[in-house]
Write a structure and sequence with these properties.
heterodimer; A: alpha/beta; Elongation Factor Tu (Ef-tu), domain 3; 3 domains; 12 helices; B: 590 residues; alpha+beta; Thrombin, subunit H; OB fold (Dihydrolipoamide Acetyltransferase, E2P); Rossmann fold; 32% helix; 23% strand; binds adenosine-5'-triphosphate; binds magnesium ion
């Protein structure tokens, strides 16, 4: 969009709702940015000379004679190396007391990568967490959310993953972050000596909710700059995308759109996909990987937000408290990394896929045994052994405080197989069992 | 359509997301294509509603920056596909623009590339002779496209009978050169080249009739071919919650199916999934011809981040390409992942136009739209007596995994095969997660199919399949009883019934899509394994207590699994077969 040499100023708003105001104006482009009484707003509807603006901070206190200035451009961010190490708000303005970051101005929410210019992701990201590296290996260019109830330590796990991931840049998109969590991220990154690799766009719970809609686009515009222009490996953290979707529904309700499931807009799938699909691996090594958080209510993944997310992302990581061991684990049943087959057994040891599957299968048998027990039935010897196995598996591999390399994870798994089961019960390819089954059995 | 009339013009008057309202100065047609002039680019759009002098158009691009007053030019035609040699191996966007010839890393608005090279020369061989009666779709000649005999046909748009007045000599011709001249009853001449256009939302009807399908289409997926087969010219759909294996299943079918041509429509799904195809298909071999898979494949990619309006178009583009190749007498397999995204695109637009919504805010006419689309598949007898077919399999992504929703329900009414993916099976990694009891193939009710099955596979095949299903059914009942009464509250026979169905599940139903050997199971091998398994399940076995049943069957399953992982009929395969025989000997009675 071209920036106009002079800006026209309007002072007659005809209609004001909670989130929007409408006025007569000409020469205005769709999605153009405007300032309404000093507040950022964006064109969301044009009907002849009637222009409707969505005011991000809400319309509270805006008078009908407020000054409306059209900026002649869509919302944008100045991208450049100066972004590194900085904290910004949803509009890309500094909140760390530093100066405005200088750089080339780029529109946010820009076009998609031509799919034929993508490369198939194949670079393993290791985290030391076996619930991820063993069962749900991640690769650069992937998009995957944590599904977690609000009381789970998802931000802590995410920060840990980010720091271990060996990314060139970490872009934090904080969407309705509590102030405490904001400070937590800041501290963790600072203590790890990683601040120079971090760029943050933060909207806290104190900020207006509709502003949140800008955060992921800002974060992803910055990410694209580093991945495309600088060929860097960029990791984007988006937390909490449920609050993003909530903000979408606030806007669409106020614009009188027909809601679909769970009062979410009918376009929720496309709206979320536009963001998540920014995850990409390029030929030249640059990549954008997105790790997000989608908080659930009461573990319900059929709600429209996690449901649409699951249909878009390349798997999901489920956090759950395992009461048997008193720790948070990455649930092997509902968790899935869909890109894992691009790397496991190829970038990792050949037995990886089968070990992973066998362990999960046995863990499922343990779940069945537990159901039997709860229904008051006697357990067979095999049932007993699966229960023992499940506990150890959970403690030694699934718990989020595990930090070992992948080879070690495989060894631990073989160890557990041999401790509790016969080869026939484990039921893998014979060659693998011949090679890796621990001696002495 | 007003093909020759003066083009209508208009001006943008309103913009809401990708719905643009245009004031027009002349006649416009529903679904007519227009271009909006934005700076130095032209953005393509389609008329979806007309009210007085206002045309409501859906723009196939982002509308950022559009302003009232911008010029709009109407083209006088509907959304059309350009058809001709050079389509195979291409990667297209939803409007059939070649993605590979676009410039830059990012998609640029208004960059509309040609569907194939208009300069390329093809070796033409005439098939028709001067004086022949010609109708739409008649084969005039042939070129070789990736080793596939590509028929050059009389345009599908022809109406009435024509006579072939002249035809080009064998030789190399450019696609736009005239290779034949036709005359109608009044002597009016129509020159024909290798290229023709067809409006994608209209079915190509250049055939005699559409019989009921009667021949199995081998996919190499056991749970489909053996239990609920799809047929040449059949329709099927795969509904399932996210992560249950729809895409993996479709990709397996696209690699292995016995088809001449495969068209994959990636409709509103992940870009990385089409990248899988781009990356793997040029490398992988077509198991039927030994040539590279990409040679028989065309990919239509409108991924979820690409413009929503083009998503709807993408499935029609794909269907039109399929119809084009079917008219050449080829076996075409069309896959769309996911048809729910297409339905959602319709919903977004319908909501923006403030139409009265139907169930779940989908448009009222959704069932009609879906059924109309599925009806374009089928096996046909062409006017020259040859057959061609389009087998169509779509995935459905029901909200919350709940099959009681409009897209699933509307599809169920028209698709004849139902492959229900179960969350529970996916969670316990029993892939492919097709529920064997809920799923069905209506084609198994067709006597003409049963007849060819018994010819194609074995005379007793149909009965064997019924027996397998019974075993699965009895196993399910047994599992329920064991759950209610406990292991020691039921007879050993109940345990046996359960474990026999576990054998069928583990060896026939489950199949590792990522294992080089197991991923594709040819019919012959399927037949062999079914015999083997029925042998096992027919064997009377003696046990002293129920505790012995589980470990014993685990060994049976393990031996059979090793067979699945071994190349068919190799020494290794036979070694595990022998192992199985010995295990059975241990407890065989009588
Ligand atoms: N036959 C199979 N063998 C092994 N693994 C499988 C198989 N089918 C599915 N999977 C596993 O399940 C994952 C999800 O499968 P897939 O991507 O096909 O799901 P989907 O139903 O298409 O989901 P969505 O609706 O979200 O697109 C795969 O990445 C793979 O890990
Ligand atoms: Mg899929």
């Amino acid at each position: 969009m071209d920036t106009r040499a002079f800006q026209r100023i309007y002072t007659k708003i005809e209609q004001i709702t909670k989130a929007t105001c409408t006025l007569k104006a000409t020469g205005v482009g769709y999605e153009e940015l405007a300032m309404v009484a000093g507040k950022e707003a964006q064109v969301v509807k044009i009907m002849d000379d009637q222009v409707t603006l969505q005011v991000f901070a809400g319309t509270e206190g805006i008078p009908t004679n407020a000054e409306v200035v059209f900026m002649g451009k869509a919302p944008s961010l100045k991208v450049g190396d100066a972004l590194a190490g900085r904290f910004f708000n949803a509009y890309g303005q500094p909140i760390d007391g530093g100066p405005e970051a200088d750089g080339e101005e780029r529109e946010i929410g820009g076009p998609s990568v031509n799919p034929v210019r993508r490369k198939q992701p194949s670079e393993l990201i290791t985290t030391g967490i076996a619930g991820i590296d063993l069962n749900n290996s991640l690769v650069t260019g992937q998009k995957i959310p944590f599904f977690a109830d609000p009381d789970q330590p998802y931000n802590q796990v995410m920060a840990m993953v980010a720091l271990r991931a060996k990314a060139d840049k970490i872009i934090l998109g904080g969407i309705g972050l509590t102030n405490d969590d904001y400070l937590y991220f800041k501290n963790v990154f600072e203590n790890a000596g990683a601040l120079h690799r971090i760029v943050s766009f933060v909207n806290t719970t104190e900020d207006p909710p509709v502003e949140r809609l800008l955060v992921p686009d800002m974060a992803l515009a910055a990410a694209e700059y580093f991945a495309v222009d600088k060929h860097e490996k960029v990791l984007v953290l988006l937390t909490d995308m449920t609050l993003y979707a909530d903000a979408l529904s606030i806007v669409s309700n106020r614009m009188d759109q027909i809601p679909s499931k769970d009062s979410m807009p009918g376009s929720l799938y496309s709206d979320l996909a536009k963001l998540y699909e920014k995850a990409v691996q390029f030929e030249d090594g640059g990549s954008v990987t997105i790790i997000a958080v989608t908080t659930l209510s009461g573990g319900d993944i059929t709600h429209a937000i996690p449901d649409n997310t699951g249909y878009i992302t390349e798997g999901q990581l489920f956090l759950r408290r395992d009461t048997d061991i008193g720790k948070v684990i990455i649930d092997p049943f509902r968790s899935l990394s869909r890109l894992k087959q691009l790397v496991i057994g190829k970038k990792t040891r050949a037995d990886h896929p089968q070990v992973m599957n066998a362990a999960v299968r046995l863990y499922a048998d343990a779940a069945n045994a537990r159901t039997k027990l709860e229904n008051g039935f006697d357990l067979t010897d095999y049932d007993e052994r699966t229960l023992e196995f499940a506990k150890e598996y959970s403690r030694e591999l699934l718990a989020i405080d595990v930090n070992i390399d992948t080879e070690k994870m495989l060894e631990v798994a073989w160890e557990l197989f041999a401790r509790y089961f016969s080869q026939a019960e484990v039921g893998m390819k014979q060659e693998l069992m011949d090679k890796y089954w621990p001696n002495g059995n | 359509m007003k093909e020759t009339a003066q083009h209508t013009h208009g001006k943008v008057s309103g913009i809401i997301a990708n719905l643009v309202i245009v004031r027009v100065d002349g006649p416009v047609a529903q679904n007519e294509i227009c271009f909006i002039q934005h700076a130095d680019t032209q953005l393509m759009a389609e008329v979806i509603k007309i009210l007085g002098d206002k045309a409501y158009v859906q723009v196939f691009e982002s509308t950022r920056g559009l302003q009232p007053g911008m010029e709009v030019t109407f083209t006088g035609h509907l959304l059309e596909a350009t058809l001709g040699p050079g389509i195979l191996s291409k990667n297209y966007d939803g409007l059939m623009h070649d993605l590979d010839t676009m410039t830059g890393i990012f998609l640029k608005r208004g960059e509309y590339t040609l569907s194939f090279d208009m300069e390329q020369k093809w070796d033409f061989r005439p098939l028709a002779a001067v004086g022949d009666k010609i109708t739409a779709g008649s084969w005039l000649g042939e070129v070789t496209e990736n080793s596939i005999p590509h028929k050059i046909m009389a345009p599908f748009k022809l109406e009435g009978p024509y006579t072939l007045q002249s035809i080009a000599e064998p030789g190399a011709y450019g696609v736009t050169e005239t290779i034949a001249v036709l005359t109608d009853s009044r002597g009016k001449e129509t020159p024909v080249s290798m290229v023709q256009k067809w409006p994608v939302k209209k079915a190509v009807k250049a055939y005699q009739n559409k019989p009921r399908p009667f021949k199995l289409l081998e996919t190499g997926v056991r749970t489909i071919d053996t239990l609920n087969p799809i047929v040449e010219g059949g329709t099927g759909f795969i509904p399932g919650p996210f992560g249950s294996g729809k895409t993996v299943m479709q990709q397996a079918i696209s690699k292995q199916a016995e088809a001449d041509i495969v068209i994959v429509a990636a409709c509103g799904e992940r870009a990385n999934e089409v990248v899988d195809l781009f990356t793997e298909f040029p490398e992988l071999d077509d198991p039927w011809t030994g040539r590279k898979l990409m040679e028989r494949t065309t990919i239509i990619a409108n991924t979820s981040n690409m413009p929503v309006a083009a998503r709807e178009a993408s499935v029609y583009t794909a269907m039109t390409i399929a119809e084009y190749y079917r008219s050449m007498g080829l076996k075409v397999l069309l896959l769309a992942d996911s048809t729910s995204r297409w339905a959602q695109a319709l919903r977004e637009m319908s909501n923006r136009m403030e139409e009265l919504p139907g169930p779940d805010a989908f448009p009222m006419d959704l069932p009609a739209i879906i059924s109309n689309f599925y009806s374009r598949a089928g096996i046909v007898f062409l006017n020259n007596g040859q057959t061609g077919s389009i087998t169509f399999i779509g995935t459905v992504s029901p909200a919350g995994g709940n099959l009681k929703e409009p897209v699933t329900e509307s599809t169920k009414k028209v698709a004849r095969c139902f492959y229900a993916l179960s969350q529970q099976r996916a969670d316990s990694k029993r892939y492919p997660a097709i529920d064997p009891i809920d799923s069905y193939s209506k084609y198994l009710e067709y006597p003409e199919l049963l007849k060819t099955l018994n010819e194609q596979i074995a005379p007793n095949w149909a009965e064997q399949v019924i027996e397998l299903k019974n075993i699965l059914f009895r196993g399910k009942e047994a599992a329920e009883q064991i759950n209610i009464l406990g292991d020691d509250g039921v007879s050993i026979d109940t345990h046996l019934a359960f474990w026999r169905s576990e054998v069928v599940d583990a060896i026939i139903l489950q199949q590792d899509a990522f294992d080089e050997v197991d991923s594709r199971c040819p019919l012959k091998r399927q037949k062999y394994m079914v015999d083997k398994i029925l042998d096992v399940t027919d064997t009377a076995l003696a046990f002293d207590g129920y505790e012995e049943v589980n470990p014993y069957f685990k060994r049976v399953i393990s031996a059979l699994k090793q067979m699945n992982y071994s190349e068919f009929e190799t020494p290794k395969f036979k070694q595990y077969e022998e192992e199985l025989r010995q295990i059975l000997e241990e407890r065989k009675t009588g």
